């Protein structure tokens, strides 16, 4: 069901250039396209994001508090180059996982933006990664 809803969201987002699907739970959404680490096929998922300074974008690899990381995060671990779409604009980005210091800085802001992330962290023993996207 998660994959179906994600594909539907991404399709509506693309078709309307972000008019539909641009906001969820009072936060902005983007489309992230990665290369599959096994298949090398392109995979696109809609994700909440926060904006930092100098074009920095922040993603949260929560996967709803499941015990494993989401596929998009694992794909970025294999190939940090990705593409994002914000509204109708597409950009090449490079991803990195936030260091412990960076995570400590961003985590309170992430939880302020969407309190559900604190619930997700409480559901899992893994440390939910914060992903930093920088323009390529």
Describe the structure.
The chain is of the alpha+beta class. The chain has a single domain, classed as Electron Transport, Fmn-binding Protein, Chain A (Pnp Oxidase, Chain A). The longest helix has 14 residues, at 2-15. 32% of the residues lie in helices and 33% in strands. Strands 1, 2, 3, 4, 5, 6, 7 and 8 form an 8-stranded antiparallel sheet that branches. It has helices at 2-15, 71-78, 100-113, 116-123, and strands spanning 23-24, 27-35, 42-48, 50-51, 57-60, 81-86, 89-97, 130-135.
Structure keywords:
Pnp Oxidase, Chain A, 8-stranded antiparallel β-sheet, 4 helices, globular
What is this entry, summarized?
By secondary structure, the chain is α+β, with helices and mostly antiparallel strands. It has helices at 2-15, 71-78, 100-113, 116-123; strands at residues 23-24, 27-35, 42-48, 50-51, 57-60, 81-86, 89-97, 130-135.
Q: What's the level 1 CATH class?
A: Mainly Beta
- The amount of helix comes to 25-40%
What Rg is obtained from the alpha carbons, in whole angstroms? 14 Å
Number of strands: 8
Helical run tally: 4
What's the CATH architecture? Roll
| Structural class by SSE content | alpha+beta
**CATH H-tier superfamily:** Electron Transport, Fmn-binding Protein, Chain A
Write down the overall geometry.
globular
Query: What fraction of the residues are assigned to beta strands by DSSP?
Result: 25-35%
Which secondary structure elements does this structure contain, and how are they paired or packed?
Layout lengths: L1 H14 L7 E2 L2 E9 L6 E7 L1 E2 L5 E4 L10 H8 L2 E6 L2 E9 L2 H14 L2 H8 L6 E6 L1
Antiparallel strand pairs: 1-2, 2-3, 2-6, 4-5, 5-8, 6-7, 7-8
């Amino acid at each position: 069901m998660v994959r179906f809803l994600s594909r539907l969201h991404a399709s509506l987002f693309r078709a309307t250039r972000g008019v539909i699907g641009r906001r969820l739970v009072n936060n902005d959404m983007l489309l992230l396209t990665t290369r599959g680490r096994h298949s090398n096929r392109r995979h696109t998922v809609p994700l909440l994001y926060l904006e930092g300074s100098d074009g920095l974008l922040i993603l949260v690899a929560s996967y709803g508090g499941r015990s494993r990381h989401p596929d998009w995060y694992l794909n970025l671990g294999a190939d940090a180059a990705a593409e994002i779409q914000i509204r109708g604009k597409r950009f090449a980005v490079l991803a990195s996982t936030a260091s412990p210091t960076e995570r400590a800085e961003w985590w309170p802001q992430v939880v302020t933006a969407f309190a559900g992330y604190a619930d997700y962290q409480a559901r899992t023993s893994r440390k939910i990664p914060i992903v930093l996207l920088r323009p390529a």
